[in-house]
Amino acid sequence: MDIFLKDLKHAARMFLRAPGFTIAAVASLALGIAANTAMFSVVNTVLLKPFAYADPERIVMFQNLFQQGLGGTASPTEFSWWRQQAGAFQDVSAYSLFDSANLTSDAVAERVQAMRVSEGFFRLLGATALHGRLLSAEDDVPNAPKTAVLAYSFWRQRYGGDPKAIGGRMTLDGEPHEIVGVAAADPTNGQLSRMV
Fold this sequence. Notes:
The protein is α+β, with helices and mostly antiparallel strands and 196 residues long. It contains five helices and eight strands.
């Protein structure tokens, strides 16, 4: 222990004699620690931490396989066929990749994150409705009125957490949508959970 204290005193004297070197060394250490912390946060969130869904290990994603590689799109016919294979899967849902949409209301326009999903999406992820309802089979019928389920974060930010937003209208990409519910969980980490 005596040798360690002597070494510590010697190091402190050396750092005091060269303040420029000391500042550079401390800054390098701080940047290294910050970079490692940031990288661990990303790796932990993306790779190590389980998804905030019920039974994430049971969720699978279908993709088409072409000679050129994987393709993320499926036709409505393919989706319908997968859905008919009810014996093999507990539930099947379609979604578009995270996208954005123009939200216009009261002469104010803004770009918001949105997803197009089928009615089984929320059920598959184990999400529940905080207010109103989630999507139903009637929402997936061709030419059905367009509906939207708001993510909790978007509902708090845009509507101030007012339950009266349910039943209201919003215009997404020029098309009116009825707000039918607010998701209790925010499984997509997006702002709008549904855009048809």
